[in-house]
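Lab notebook: predicted structure, single chain.

Context: the supervisor wants predicted structures on file for every construct in the current expression panel, including those that have not yet been purified. This is the next one on the list. No modifications to the sequence; it matches the entry in the shared construct table.
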Amino acid sequence: MIRLWKGFVAALFAAVMAVGVASPARADHGWTPPSNLVTPLNQVWQHVESTYGNLYGFRNYGWDQIFTNGGYLNFCVRWDSPQPVTAQQRDAVHAQLARQYKKWMDAMVGHNHFPYASVPIKVVGWAVRDRNQLKWNDNSVDIYVNDIRENAPQCSEGCGRFFNRNGTYPRCPGGVARHYDQSLWLTAGFGGGAGGDWGQRIGSEYFMGNLNSSDVHIFLHEVGHTFGLDDFYDWTPSGVGGFIMKAGSSTVITEFDKWMLRDWWRHLKNRYGY
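Prediction complete. Output recorded below exactly as produced.
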C-alpha cells in the first residue's frame, strides 16, 4: 500500500510539472519605507480596503494595462477644444505626456520585482470635431472625426481598452498595435481634473500652457488615480504634510506618493505572478 501511494504521488507530481504550475508569489523585496511613513501607509491601505467596493476584483487598473501589453501604454488624445493644433504642438503634447508618466514609473523601476525598466508611452490617435483643426497631413496617428461621446470627440470604441477589457481588438482597424489603453481628454475651460482607468481629463489651456513645465501637477494627480491611488479630500494620514494625491497640497510627486504607489504594487503583484 505504501509503495502504491508513493507511486501515485510521484505520478501526480510528474503530471503537474508537465502541464506547468504558476510560480508562487515572490516575497516582498525592497519594501522598506522610511520609518516615518510606515504608519501613514498602513492607514492609507486600511482606508482603501474599507472604502473601495471591488478593490481586488477590479481588473483594469493602470497596472493591468501595462501587464496585458507586456510593458507599454498607448494613448489617444480627445481634443475637446475649438482651437487648432499644429504638428509641432502635437509632438510636444506627446513628449510631455511621456515625461509626466515617467515620473510615476521611475518610482517603480527596480522595486520589489517590478519587471520593467521603463514603460514606453505612445500616442496612437487624436479625436476631434473638425479635421481642419489638426494642421498636419501625415499618418503618424489615427484621426477620429466628429464621433461624439459625453459631448466630446471620442476615439474609436473598437480600439479602446476601456471598451475591450479582454485585451483583443477585433473591431479596431489597426488591431492591437493601434489600440489605446487610456485617453488624454483635453477640454477647453475645464477646471481641475478627473482620472481613472479610462485615462485623465484636464483643461486644454492648462495642459498646452505647461508643455515645457517640469511638473504638470493636476495631470500627475490624475495619473495616480489610474493606478488606484485615492483622494484625500477629508482626511490626512498621520505625520505627513503635502503630497500630490492630496489635491492642492503639492505640485510634485513626493516620497509619500511614491511609497503609496509601491504599496499598490505590493498588494497586486501576485496577480501577475510576482
